[in-house]
Amino acid sequence: MMRFKRYLWTLASVAALLAMGGGATASAASAPAPKFITIGTLYAGSGNYATSSLPELAGLKFWISQVNAKGGVYVKAYHKKIKIRLVDYNDQSDPNTATTQYAQLITQDKVNILVSDFGSVLTAAAVTVAKEHKMVLFDPTGTGSSFFTPPSPYIVLTSLPTSAVWPDSFAKYLIALGKKRVAIVYATNDFDGAQDATLVAALKAHHITPVYNNGVDTATSNYTVIIHNMAQTHPDAAVEFGYPNNDITFFQNLSASGVHFPFLFTIFPGQQLALLTQNVGAKALSDTFTYPTPPLLAYNKGITYGLSLNAFAKAIKPQIKSAPNFLDIAGYQAGLVIQKTLETSKSLSQLDLRAAAGRIRFFTLDGQYKLAKSGAQLGELLPVAQLQPTKSGGVAPVIVYPQSVATGKAVATH
Amino acid sequence: MLYALVAGILFGLYYALISLGLNLSFGVLRMVNLAHGDFVMIGGFTAVVLYSSWHVHPLVSLVLGAAAVFVVGIALYYLLVPRIATTKDPEMISLVLFFGLSQVIEALAVIHFGNNEQSIFDPVFGTQPVSLLGQSLPAVWLVSGLVSLVALALVYLYLYRSRLGYSTRAVMASREEAEVSGINLHRVSAIAFGIGLGLAAAAGALAPFMLGGITPDIGTGLTTTAFAVIVLGSLGNPMGTIAGGLIYGIALMLMQTYLPSWASLLPYVLLLLVLLVRPSGLFGRQVRSA
Known about the structure:
The complex is a heterodimer.
Chain A: H1 2-30, E1 36-43, H2 50-69, E2 73-75, E3 80-90, H3 95-107, E4 113-115, H4 119-132, E5 137-139, E6 155-157, H5 167-177, E7 182-187, H6 190-205, E8 212-216, H7 224-232, E9 237-241, H8 244-257, E10 264-266, H9 273-280, H10 282-285, E11 289-290, H11 309-320, H12 326-344, H13 350-359, E12 362-364, E13 367-369, E14 384-389, E15 395-401
Parallel strand pairs in A: 1-3, 1-4, 4-5, 5-6, 7-8, 7-9, 9-10
Antiparallel strand pairs in A: 2-3, 11-14, 12-13, 14-15
Helix pairs in contact in A: 2-12, 3-4, 5-6, 8-9, 12-13
Chain B: H1 2-29, H2 36-54, H3 58-85, H4 90-113, E1 130-132, E2 135-137, H5 139-161, H6 163-173, H7 175-180, H8 185-210, H9 218-233, H10 240-258, H11 266-277
Antiparallel strand pairs in B: 1-2
């Protein structure tokens, strides 16, 4: 009898709890929909990362303008379309300023969605703040591997794979080419450091120890002596991992030094070809190897969500007054991921948003989107391309590895 | 090792040119011009714009930019410095004011030129490296070294072989005594301030070749490094700046050779070492109190 009473008591308690939970759900569903979905983000209006951050913001703003022109984004939690409002602050490329402003977006502006600034250096500040406040961070381009060390329930990398994955194809290509004397210089930040670690590990697995492997500060403004020191090791392949400012300085110093590397790889000609060409000239870039990203990888067919590359380029041109680069696309892609997340999330709670972002499977102008449990991006491919001279005096990327996606063959370097 | 030493000497001469104007301004004004690096940036953009628009050779831009900024510097002196001098704490006020000026210049540069790096990639100084002491170096480094030496020599001649220079040195030694002896304090200081900024702009014309792409925000970092160089040589002693620049350049290139990851810390490490070991700098007899 006593046991039966206890059983009834437990049953009643469970029923009461369920009722309370149901009531809570019902009250959330019946709560009035917000007038806006507020997205908070930072951008670098000046400093080292402005070159990359501003186009990324332009891409996000373009997505917002597109969505709002159609009456807003469909929010499943309220079964209606709601317009997007953007709150953005200028962090001036300073991680310390960014830390304060990310916290301000969450605590003062009470944004619904948090989007980080460009790159790993400025995203690192957001990762910590987002974790502290249990806020999902939509991360367009911060690919530092450390952000995705489990448990990482509050981050969604919307665009590129984590930086440690980037050199996979490139390392295989170097090995396939039979390169034995590889010289590497990398900027000492999460993004470039992770790539160096991956490349070195892959080479060492094939008993290739780099003949030169040194890190330099991301703000390095002259590589002349470093280039000389690399050349002294007589490499058959030279690799420079850096941000756009590093690549520009490296190419300038290389041209002036008279040093010639038989094989040269850098990152950003594949993402910001126009900027690099404007600063170092097509001749300096000719025959360089790089990771091609959209728009150099042109996705126009098989798009299941958002605009194709051609449609995007045409639509965004009035806003940015030029052809889009990868960062414009990355900003737009972040918007698409947010849009799909809101369309499928059962509530605006941060964990529901994160779960919805994890379920997304689509193919956009940025390629395949597929999220790992860690929040890292798995879908996109980073092959190896060579910038080859064109008849008009410029350079154009030819994908040379892996064979499955190759569009041509590498040519001998000048 | 020899390559790093030769490169360090040339790079050090360039940094001496960047820093010399800051020390000259400090010597006569006893104020640190935190906007100094922004005038290097202005000189850099002047060279880039003149070359991209009219193919003006950067060495011509160097002269034009330095002359224009010299005039601007004199005007800026009369606009700002006499007012600061009448305040209770001119040193502190000047720090805030020049910091503000730096921010304004940077913001204006962003508005006019955008945030993207800008540079000159045509081989205006030749396509082949040159050989110096058996080391193959970019031709522009040699040009930069020569330009720096010429500029440093002109400053030396100005300070030690001209009447205005004697007055300038008198002001640097003691503003009060110079004023009592009938020297026109503001005239001498304005000219020295203008020369200081002109030297910064001259260095800026070579920056697209020596420092990579020019962006509006490079000024702050350059001011910091220039400050380290002049503290190394000794504050208020323009000629000590040459030694400071050479030590900085050689140390930087040696660091890039043997400890590249730590090279960017060099200005701060040197600054701390000098302040701890020899606060008056290596040529510290003429150290100023500020």
